[in-house]
Amino acid sequence: MKILHFSWEFPPKIVGGLGTFVTELSAAQVRMGNEVTVFTMNYGNKLITVDNYRGVEVHRPKIPNFSTTLYLFADNELRQWGDGFKFFADVVSYNILSASKLIHLLVGKDGRVFEIVHSHDWLGIMAGISVKEALNLPLIFHIHSTEKGRTMGRGSRIIEDIEYKGGEIADCIITVSEAMREELYRLGFSPKKIRVCWNGVDVEKYNPARVTEEDRLRLRRSYGIGDDEKMLLFIGRLVGVKGPDNLIKSMPSILEEFPKTKLVLLGEGEMESYLRILIREIGLEDEVILRAEFVDEEERIRHYAAADVVVIPSLYEPFGIVCTEAMSMAKPVVVGAKGTSGMREQVIPSGEKQCGIHVNPYDPNDIAWGVKQVLGMEDCGAWMGRNGRERAIQCFRWDIVASKTLDIYKEVLYR
What we know:
The protein is an alpha/beta fold. The chain has 17 helices and 14 strands. It folds into 2 domains: 2-200 and 397-414, Rossmann fold; 208-395, Glycogen Phosphorylase B (Rossmann fold). Helix 4 (85-107) runs parallel beside helix 5 (121-135).
C-alpha cells in the first residue's frame, strides 16, 4: 500500500508515546513492503525538509510564524493560552503547509498516488481532513488520547471540537485500548467507526540481555543505590495526570516496611518545582532522586535494567508505552488501573501469568500497598517480570501492531 501519515512528532523530535508509535509503526509498514510517507513538524525550521528515515519518506515543511496574524482571529479561550498560543499557531501552520504540499506538489505536480491517509491526534487531523476532501482518499483518525482525558476535563474546547470533527469526517477511528474505546463512546464518537489496536514495543531492543550486569550496577551506584537496596523507577512526564506526586506521597509507607528502598523519577514537566518541594517537606531527600530531564532511548533502557520495580501510577493512560517497555525488559510493574487505563489491559494482575499489580493511582496508600506486594516477594517479583516479557513478545511486538493496522486499512479500502 501507499500510506500517508500526518504526525507532529517524528525523529529526531520525540516527545511521548505518539511519536514512538508513528516511528515504529511506519518503519514496520516499510519492512512489510509498503511505501510510507510521513509529514511532520520542522522544529525551529532547522531540520532538512525532505528526508528518509528507516525507509520512510519524511517531509518537514518550514513553518513561518503566523501567531501574530492568527491571534487576530482567536477567541478568548485561545488568547488565554499566552505563550502556548504560538504552539497552536505552529500546529495549524504545519497542517496547512503539509496538506498544501501533498495536494499540489506531490500529487498535483509529481503525479504521486496515495491510497490511505492516517492522521494522529488533533495535531495531524486538520491536514488529514483537507487531503480527504481534496483527493477523496479514505481517512483514518488515530486517537491516542483525548483533550478531555489528558487534561482531566480542564482542557481546550477548541481542541475538543477539532477532535470531534475529525471523528465525524474520518472513515475509521483507531484507538489504543478498549478503555479508550469506552471513553470515545462516552464522548459521542460513532461506535461503528472505532477499532482498537494496541501500541507496541521492540522486544529485541528492549531486552534485558542487552544490558551487562556491570552497566546495570554502574547506573544504580550513580544514584547512590547500594547492592542491598531496592530501586523503584518512574519514567514519564512530570505532570499531574502521570501521578508522580502521589507516588512520592506513597514512599513513607513503603519505607516503614522496606527502609532500604530508593525511588528514581526520570522525566521533564511543569511539576518539577512542586515535586522538589514535596520531597523536602516529607523529608525524602535521601530516598527520592528526581532527575528532571529527557534522556535518550539507550539511557532509558539502562534505567529499566537497573530497576527492581517500575511504578506507573497514571491517573489517565490510554495505553502506556512505558509499561510495555518495562514488561519487555522483564520488570514487575505497579500500574494505575482506575478510569481510562490501557495498562489495565496490558498487565495481568493475578494467576500464573501475573506480570504486575493494579492500584488506585489517586490513593498513595494503595500505591504503597502495590509496591510492598512486590518488594515482599522472595525474588522481588522477578517471576512476574519474566511473565511480562513473555506477554510483550506474544502480544505487543511491532509486527503484530503493523499487521493489525494494515488489516484495518484493508477493511476501510475494500468494504
